[in-house]
Fold:
Amino acid sequence: MTSPHLGPLGTWGHESLFDPQLARDLESYGYSAIWLGGSPAADLAAVEPLLAATENLVVATGIVNIWSADARAVAASHRRITAAFPGRFLLGIGVGHPEATSDYRRPYGSLVDYLDVLDDEGVPAEERVLAALGPKVLRLARDRSAGAHPYLVPPEHTRQAREILGADRVLAPEQKVVLDTDATAARELGRGAVDDPYLHLSNYVSNLKRLGWADADIADRGSDALIDALVGHGDAAAVAQRLQGHRAAGADQVLVQLLTPEGADRRAGYAAIADAFGR
Structure:
């Protein structure tokens, strides 16, 4: 199974954070993919401007929500994008979480149905991945797609996911990071991004409990130990070490979600992390 080539380092962020100039900068720093969060609409309009601005960068969706984006419309967008930019687009899809979707029902069966439509519409399995946390959906990702895109996971989850996926499937976990050597300040910034909303969403909480975290760790905006497990912080070398932890655990690509104070320019941080990661 051949999917768009993913180098070891990518970025993850809401689709509104990325523009063509930032995409060019990220490619020049050594990032090989941008993953667009925020449940992109079925037209996938944000994808082509980023691809057109770069030479080899892969753009992926992280993720298209099956409840809000019609499968046939998404397949049409996939055909449009891959015709113009062959080998540079990866369609990430997932069920989201029940607290955000009133139509949330039979999530596993609905995801299978969505994949069936993508099959009927000619979207190759090797050009799509699934948002997957638990073993059942990880097995579905193994059997019906190029692989898995887990979100809000420590390297221990990456290790378990690789065991389920096998050696020949893509594994691209997201990793939140804060470039700050003041542990208290970094932890507080990270805690805000983790607690709201993820520590109040059943699928993420269930996954953390599967990994051994207790109710006391999840309560009150998350224990320091939990936040440290989910958000890498420190200087660029320390952050790069956390990213390499996912690689050592079996990730093909680790996706940097760089957390900064509101309005900060992320470019210098992206560059420093990539430099440290590559050393």
